[in-house]
């Protein structure tokens, strides 16, 4: 007989056994319920045959019910709540049908009505009990084999659904890990257990928990985070504790990030720098974002960059009618276009090569596609590069923003979102000052739009450094680590605000829909809550330790001094624009000085002429007058070139 035929025969024999079991349990439940209700008096029913007839009648009702619900097809080894629901339906239906039949036969005169209620409980118990006992027995045997294997003992952080899934996935004999205990952020769960694995203490009691496990001969070698709600501060504490206690810290991925779904083994990924700096994910208004984007035509400038590409990914998930990717770099445009094309739910994608400094190309793209929403992320952002090439930074960041904004108005765009940076606050470099000019122009146009109905809205969003973006400090440190160091830090006291690109873009979208709906925020700048600033030298030390090395011993840290245009401390608010809460998670708002849009437009045109004629000093002079708080190399601020539109010509704040 072939192996396939043998397997089919074995399956059928098991199904027959399961069916026979259920029939026997049905008969037993009827007899047991009678005995529980009548005691020894039930035997008096045997003389007139009522007991035999009643049992046979009950079984005759149960058999077609069990067959119709296919109880025999369930695999006892994997009995679960779904199986229990099927048993519940079978028991209920059997009792209901039997009650009707018994009423038709003898008006329920020979069987006490309470027997039927008792029978329901007994039948459910006898059908479900053996199934779950069998699963429990198999689980115990499998756990015993796993315990005796060479699996790595792991202490889990978190006592929720993810921990339960991990424990179940490591029950097989060939599992890589073996859970020996859990610690919970919430002390209320201490003393309880999940699949026999005890919650031994809270995170604050980690040292004592490890000592307790060592005393049992179950010293953990891995500390595995299963709770994704833990913020970066707690992860840093766990990272330090694991290092101190001789464990390696890891975490399970989000289940939504598992491309192949949940299998027999959940992969453990090492801790990344994003984990140490991350914050709990904000609960965002997804319905509002869907209302903003679904069915709309959307354009993203700089669509291949770090922020632009993540904007494209997240916008695509909200089903826009059309997604126009405007990008100057051919390779970046090709990469994000290919990524989107591979998605089964991708909207219509239009990849356009173009430079925001080219007014003709921008105008052509806007006129052809008539976007409802424009996210302007195109920019030159690397401080040293823009310091060495100031006219290029000014043409892209300041002049390019004017070109895109004016084209939005001409095309009848409903909303343009200007992506800004914390370097625009009290700038000490050309990049920051050029982004401040871009902020001012978007702000001025938004205020002007309030004077005419149906005008294009302009929402500006300002935030700090994005982890892992091109040219940021994290990839630089990673390259230096790969070559054996040293890691170069400009100054021991330098701090920066950090945010993951995913979180930054989520909040940008949130600010966009919130600002577009609320006219009270015209002319204001939304500022993302960046948390606490991080010392760059501390970040360097953490990255060295993440690589399994020791700072100052295996990898040296050297200080190179501040480069032109760099600041020790970044700010997200100007001194004269105090932060104001919006009532929205992760969003603050600033009210900087406002200028007249037409006057600012003329000044930007002068800036364009001087940059294109390569008159750099003239261009920088215009920049200083436009942004009086711009202080390169410690220079004192100069008088503002434009009157404050909101205060009748007072000096810039």
UniProtKB/TrEMBL annotation:
| Keyword Amino-acid biosynthesis found | no
| Keywords carried by this UniProt record | Membrane, Transmembrane, Transmembrane helix
Q: Does the keyword section mention Cell wall biogenesis/degradation?
A: no
Q: Which Pfam families match?
A: CoA_binding_3, Polysacc_synt_2
Instruction: Enumerate the InterPro entries for this protein.
Output: NAD(P)-bd_dom_sf (IPR036291), Polysac_CapD-like (IPR003869), Polysaccharide_Synthase-Rel (IPR051203)
Give the transmembrane region(s). 12-36, 51-72, 84-105, 117-134
Sequence segments annotated as region (Disordered): 633-653
Question: According to the lineage, what is the superkingdom?
Answer: Bacteria
Query: Where is the Polysaccharide biosynthesis protein CapD-like domain positioned along the sequence?
Result: 298-577
Record family assignment? Belongs to the polysaccharide synthase family.
Protein name per the record: Nucleoside-diphosphate sugar epimerase
